Amino acid sequence: VEVTARLLPENATYGDIEWKAVTVHGIVTNIAKVEADGCKAVVTALADGEFRLRCVARNGRKTPQVISELEFEVSGFGDAVLDPYEFVQGGLYSSGSVPLRPGLLGGVEMPGGKMEYVSFKGLDFGDYGSDEITIPIYFLSDEATPVEIWEGVPGEKDARLLLSGVYHKKCIYLTYQEETYRLPVRLKGLTTLTVGAKEKLHIKGFRFTRYEKAYRKLYAAENDRIYGDSYTPAGDAVEGIGNNVTLEFENMDFGDTGFSRLVICGRSRNDVNTIHIHFVSPDEDIVRIVEVPYSEDYMEHEFTLDSIKGMRKVCFTFLPGSSFDFKWFRFDK
Known about the structure:
The chain is an all-beta fold and about 325 residues long. The protein has strands at about 1-5, 15-20, 30-35, 40-45, 50-55, 65-75, 90, 95, 100, 110, 115-125, 130-140, 145-150, 160-165, 175-185, 190-195, 200-205, 205-210, 220, 225, 230-235, 235-240, 245-255, 260-270, 270-280, 285-295, 300-305, 310-320, 325-330.
């Protein structure tokens, strides 16, 4: 849809205007994209829901002086997906255990009195995920107050309590303060997050820490795909790896600098077990070869390799005659 704004009077001193798609509470939404060109804007729907196209004139001042809005309702596109690694405003919540009110600065106000919940659905954590969340909270008290974090919606099927913690900071009037929580598991894929609070407080939103999957310790069992003649999953490890077995790990982004070494934690049943490591992109397949010596127990082995850069699929391939137990690996910069 193309929308045109008309400036009045036509000889106005200031002609600069700003466009954005917002919720009813004025929070920028991701269910529509706005491409602005002066007094014209092209609005493209991306997901279902209601939004307002807002046009703002500042008239030479820092704050908006004139605001005009058009209301839109979109259907047939499906639900919006939120990026948990960018800040998610509290006011973009999907549902609450009770009716909730807007909070300070685009946040959401929890009513207090008992544990109540605010849920955010459609969070896409990707295939590796994250277990660290930072939440700015405003609580008009210096006392500690309980906070819960759930995957899913409490009371619904498959919902699980991830963390029962506290928020405890010296209050600064009308000021959000961040608290970071470490969850016992990484949230992965497309899921719903719920935050619970027992007291009346404001939640500005949240942001998860984005990990560089390519440079994290990855357990063999975390592979995206495994195939071959013989292998046995054993907790975090894959043991008894024999002929022609390949473990694939997708979305390994080594960036512009690449890695300097590879650490493999494993146990070779042979005097030497050779592993071919493929770094696959749409344009090429680069192979590096390492040899792991015999050991009775799991041991860490370090290998200096010529660097690989950019996004790759990493494949560990074991040739005929292999006999290997694979625990984990890590690339270091």
